[in-house]
Design brief:
4 helices, two-stranded antiparallel ribbon, mainly alpha
């Protein structure tokens, strides 16, 4: 997913202003936590909530980035319809945002 500036928005920059992919190792190195939580706490929370709201496990796996070749949600040749993908996730994600008090950042998706 890209920002309005045409660059990925989940990244860090190194000393030479090159993008560093965000992942558990780069998070641990670049983010100072005020209290210790496992690195994937946010992913566990999101996965749990999506399943609680009845999203199919396969769709949750794909949303979390665990897809097989041919299932990529935004690939034009995917076996997964982007409209089905969206319709399965839109309402539950809106509920999660509403119930946690988080706000969508305008212009990002």
């Amino acid at each position: 997913m890209n920002s309005e500036y045409g660059v990925p928005f989940f990244f860090f920059l190194n000393e030479r202003y090159k993008a560093i992919k965000v992942g558990p190792i780069s998070l641990k190195k670049n983010v100072k936590w005020s209290y210790e939580l496992p690195q994937n706490t946010n992913r566990h929370f999101l996965r749990t909530k999506l399943r609680e709201y009845g999203v199919d496990g396969e769709v949750v796996d794909i949303f979390m980035g665990h897809w097989e070749i041919g299932q990529e949600p935004h690939n034009p040749f995917s076996t997964l319809s982007p409209q089905d993908y969206k319709s399965n996730l839109e309402e539950p994600l809106s509920k999660i945002l509403r119930n946690t008090g988080w706000k969508k950042i305008r212009g990002l998706g």
